[in-house]
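Methods — Computational structure assignment.
A single polypeptide chain was analysed. Its primary sequence is given first, followed by the predicted tertiary structure written as structure tokens.
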Amino acid sequence: PDYSFCTLLPSVVRLETDAMSARLRDLIRAVRSCKTAAEERAVVQRESAIVRQQLHRGDNRGPNLLKLMYMSMLGYATEFGQLEVVKLLAEADFASKRVGYLALCVLLDESQEVLTLAENHIKRDLVATGNPFITSLALDAVANIAGADMSRDMMNEVYGLLGSSNTHVRKKAALAAQRAVRKAPELVDVFLEDERLMSILNERNHGILICFVTLLNECLASENGKPYLTKYATLIPAAVRQLNQLVMSGYATEHEVGGIADPFLQVKLLQFLRIVGRGSEDAAEAMNNVLAQA
């Protein structure tokens, strides 16, 4: 074999570069130990250069994206790693996808053109994996960074997952739907015409209930939701009953916070009553007793 200097130099440089690359924990420790902003910039710039080289070679994509997320949170430019996020989403294993979706939500936003390259991977993970954990990651992405176009593109998949048999997926689908109607208000009709929302206040699972009431409030509070206020005002007795159970009976002590039974759900129910009961004497009468206790 040819062991000339010119042949070995690239391998030596690569080994030295890899040895210089810090783990995320070491990078955080090095940044925290900096006494001046100039020292911090020097540490981040040095590590950023190493990360750029390794990403160019396709090495350690997951660990390097974790470092880029940390640098991004410190306020440093990380645009050079955006395409690597899409490559990580294309991986089949859950560990890679978990880092990929986390990086997607941290390093990109709805205005980034790179996001359009990730949409096919997100849509595929929403419907084709059969793995609720990967589906949940994709729903997290929709709920956090979807813009108007992406919301319209993902609407059918998100809508279908509202009826999932998996409780975890249903909760995340409701929050993704909330983001969708906020970014594309014309989708409000699709959700408010769904009869499943008319029976949601009979749900006993607090996690599902708070997510779906949040979706319901988002839809009804929009301009497109006004024609449905009369229809959903019929749910006032059910909302009052749920609120009364929380205030009076304390039946869900596992959700207690500071001696108050599920205060977050109580707030969502009060918001719902405010939206659908505005200007109605009958609604005000139905709410009086429980509001006095709350």
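Note: The chain is about 70% helix and 0% strand.
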